[in-house]
Amino acid sequence: MFAAIHLLLGCVLLRYAYAVGRARGHSCARAELVNIGAVKAPRVSAAAVLGFLTGVSLCPPFLAAGVRAAEAASVAAAVLFFAAFFLGTSVWFVPFAGLGWVRRNEAVTTVARMAMVLIALYYLYAGLAILIGKGAYGY
Amino acid sequence: MATKAVSAPQPRSIGRCVLLTLPVSLWSALMFTPAFAHANRAQRIAAILTGAFMIVLFFLMMRTWKTYRWRRWFFVALGLLFPVGFIHNVMVMRGTMGIPIEEMIAGRTPFCYLPIPLLILPAAFTKTLVFPGSILPGGGMSGAGMAAMAGIWLAITIVVGKGWCSYACFFGGIEEGMASIPAKAKLRKIDPRWRYGPWAVLLAMVLLSLALFEPAYCMWLCPFKAVSEYVAARNTVGLVQNGIFVLLFAGLVIGLPLLTKKRAQCAFFCPFGAFQSIFNKTCVFEVKIDGTLCAPCLLCQKSCPTMSLTDESIARGETLMSCMKCGACVDACPKDAVVWHIRGTEVAVKPERARLMFLYAAWAMAIMFGGSIIAQGVATILHVVL
Asked: CATH assignment of B284-349?
């Protein structure tokens, strides 16, 4: 399973590195970058899918907040706590709003593409190593 | 517009050159005299030869007004002699160039500055240094030792910026030597986007170092492992790692410099160089182009070993932030339009004074770091020969 995930991530990174290069120069990102699925088939937003996948992978702070909410005196208090938790953690995502602007810089895009290829190669190697029953260091 | 070269300047008088070289001579004496304490004959001779070598090169820089031509002798000597002394040391200490991963994790490897940028994120998130080297004699490191190294590096960086890569780095000399062998480049058209390579390697390695909690560059991508200490190949993975090191060394340090006459590893790959570039924006010294004298003939662009001059940057009168201050462009300019400059002062006003001040700082650093390494390499050779 871990091998498959590593190989999949490596392939996705390579695909993105290639597609970002093709998309450069357009005012909007190409559909293949923001949607998952064949061009003519019904497609879903990649952001929604990745957001869902990230959401189902429960992080420790979220679990801690869940326990705290469960211990709350009433449902209203639990909802209020979660609302505050959501607002508080959302602040950390504010800087990401500016990343779209950074993408217009050719140097940043080129550096990101090259880095994607390097990291993808590591993931592919690690995936293959796990697949043949070894860790990344052969142990 | 046709380029009309200014007439070659007369050599500076010998007496004046001697006076200008005096501080460097004193610094050399200060640096190499301690080598005489508890030293054998080979080490004493090596210290004398190296000190004289550094003094003579500086004298020639003063006499001929040229920088790159003479700096290159020092830099190539440093690049070639570093593996000699280093390999000798690890063979004596360990009996092999191969280092087991446990030794690396324990920090029982010699100090290297290349992983410094890779330490930042793991240190910020976990307060732990994933450093593959030691600065204590018995291995490992102390907080005070690390702080002292960081202080020295910071002081040098504030003054010379990426000049570190041309006057202190013990890795770049081999490729500079290789690049100087062919009379003309066989590979002339290089996509300028490859200049972003070091930033990409830096970004990838910083992220991987955080994810894997190890200095990823040292484990997987350092070309100079091929001539220093490789990973002990106890399994297939070790062979893969060493294969990558050897291929990168053969391609970036030997092959591409021979084909392009560029310092290919520095220009397209080295993550430390990219990190050091950041400080080129704030350091004291820089290279500028006087627009009133520039033709432009683009000889500076052709001579730059790291492609740090573009048509646009020349028009702006400056180099790119990847400039290593090697002096190749200054030496190449037939109209003296490319000049050394002290930040905050007027461009092209007393450029020789700026050059002198830069060279005193850079050559002091060269003697302190490079000189000791050259002396060690020479001593190793003499130890074998004598």
From this structure: 3.30.70.20
Q: Does the beta-carbon distance from A138 to B238 stay under 8 Å?
A: yes
Tell me which chain B residues have a C-beta less than 8 angstroms from the C-beta of A129: 237
Rg of chain B on CA atoms, in Å = 21
CA distance A30 to chain B (A): 22
B193 and A CB contact within 8 Å: yes
Prediction ipTM score: 0.82
What number of C-beta contacts closer than 8 Å exist between A and B?
A: 47
B206 touches chain A (CB under 8 A): no
Cis previous bond, B296, omega within 30: yes
**Whether A136 contacts chain B with CB within 8 A:** yes
Between the alpha carbon of residue A80 and those of residues A66, A91, B207, B385, the distances in Å are 12, 17, 36, 81
Sign for the pseudo-dihedral over CA of B59, B62, B65, B68: positive
Task: Tally helices (H) and strands (E) across chain B.
Answer: 19, 2
Of B101, B200, B235, the CB nearest to A118: B200
Q: What is the pLDDT along chain B (386 residues), one digit of tens a residue?
A: 444 556 678 899 999 999 999 999 999 999 988 877 777 889 999 999 999 999 999 999 999 999 999 999 999 999 999 999 989 888 887 788 887 777 766 666 677 777 788 877 777 777 776 665 555 555 555 566 667 777 888 888 889 999 999 998 988 999 999 999 999 999 989 999 999 999 999 999 999 888 888 788 888 899 998 888 887 777 788 888 889 999 999 999 999 999 999 999 999 999 999 999 999 988 999 999 999 999 889 999 999 999 999 999 999 999 999 999 999 999 999 999 999 999 999 887 889 999 999 999 999 999 998 999 999 999 999 998 88
In chain A, domain spans: 2-131
Which chain B residue is nearest to residue A116, measuring alpha carbons?
Answer: B204
The label of the residue with tokens 């190499």 reads: B32
Residue spans of the domains in chain B: they are 12-97+368-386, 98-283, 284-349
Contacts of A114 in chain B (CB under 8 A): 196-197, 199-201, 204
User: How many angstroms separate the CA of residue B176 from the nearest CA in chain A?
Assistant: 25
Under an 8 A CB cutoff, do B200 and A138 touch? no
Q: Residue B280: which residues within 8 A CB-CB, separation 6 or more? A: B161, B162, B286, B321, B322, B323
A119 touches chain B (CB under 8 A): yes
Output phi, psi for A126, to 5 deg: -65, -40
Task: Quote the pTM value.
Answer: 0.85
